[in-house]
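Worked example

This section walks through a single chain of length 496. The input is the sequence exactly as stored; nothing has been trimmed or padded.
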Amino acid sequence: MTAFYEQLSVAANVSPPPGKVSAWQHAYARRLAASDLAGVLLAVGVAHWVRFGGLAEAVVTYRYIDYTMVSLVIAVVWMFALSINHSRSTRIIGSGVEEYRRVLLATLAVFGGVAIVSMLLKLEIARGYLIVALPAGIFFLTLFRWIARQIVVRIRENHGRCITRVLAVGSPSAVRDLTSSFARDPRSEYQVVGACIPGPIPRRKIEVPGVGEIPSFGDESNVVHAVRSTGSHAVAVTATERLNGRGIRDLSWELERLDIDLLVAPGVVDIAGPRLQMRPVAGLPLIHVEKPQYHGAKRFQKRFFDVTFASAVLLLGLPVLLSVAAVIKLTSRGPIFYRQERIGLDGKPFEMVKFRTMVDGADKMVDKLAAFNESDGGVLFKIRNDPRITPVGKFLRKYSIDELPQFINVLKRDMSVVGPRPPLAKEVLTYDNHVKRRLLVKPGITGLWQVSGRSDLSWEDSVRLDLFYVENWSMISDLLIAVKTVKALVSHSGAY
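Given that input, the structure is written out below as tokens.
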């Protein structure tokens, strides 16, 4: 398996030829097929070993069923299901949760089908075999794909390869927004390498803050020339008044001859895939944006997750809680817990509980230290080497142990496990109607802000991430954020 991923790394380092669809994606998809086959064979092999005590014999027969043949049939059907579910489509591999979702659906479909066939034909396939093979398959398939992603991400970050070069077509402001959005995530597949600006005034370049200069190649009539000059693999049409529906259609015909992908950015920002539905109406592809869901079944699911997760953490972490409380009491004067008013759901205040990490009376010292505030935006108060933090408090903050008592707030319905950062009352007073949408859901112990930089984030980035979560939250995203939080705590980046 190690040799396989080394080959993947070498293949991914090969830059795709200019003017063609990204060749690295097709090589990546082919190697994912081999990776999937290895995962499927490992899954049925582990099921054999656990259920029947080993693989010493070539054929394992139990209750007149040849399980070697059963395993081979399941493996073939499993690979076929992964294929017809387009789990290796170049449109979804390498980024986002859609790839994992398709792997999960294909796997569940296979084992659901096996259960139905077994019942109809009265095959009585051993349940223990299926119970082991199903989770083992999900584990190995997702693990191998995650490893493949990390290889590609490392190549992008270290060598600038495995990139899809994009030519942006649109107004200057739209091109800047698109370029900034791609550049905001260094792991992103797309990179804007040129632009065509429809309009009477020609431009030679577009300055994008934080990115640099993007060369311009004239208006929309020069797209083909710009594609060849920049070696682009895709053209992204974003907000523009001069390129109408017929113009986009004609452009798609031109790009089709060059084997270049056409992307259309609708200009809707911070809206996740589950809320977007494509509806063809009267020959027009309409994008329907679903309303955010904060009530009903989703809220019940979130509350169930909160209670279960918080109770498990408090119960299993009780020895840690008691030990931390004793250390704080013995090493500094003042209470064990720090209580502070925060603003929660619908703007209602509540008392948030944390382990005390600063000297007693630290709140009264804020005015004296105001000149040292390092927060970008001035709304928050953050100092990297805050003199008020105790030695024990510095360790607790480094690994976010000080936040464990907040799970009590979760049980009290004041907070959620995952959500926006809980704001202070004075922060909420500065909110405009746009930022106030953060208060539509309960604040969280962790969230997108926690797994994306924590205290290293600027005020604008913190708000953007919180609003994205509010607009698009789901149980799947909560679970992914909870998993990513563990990684953030281990790396302790942005914790001070």
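What to look for: The first helix runs from residue 2 to 12.
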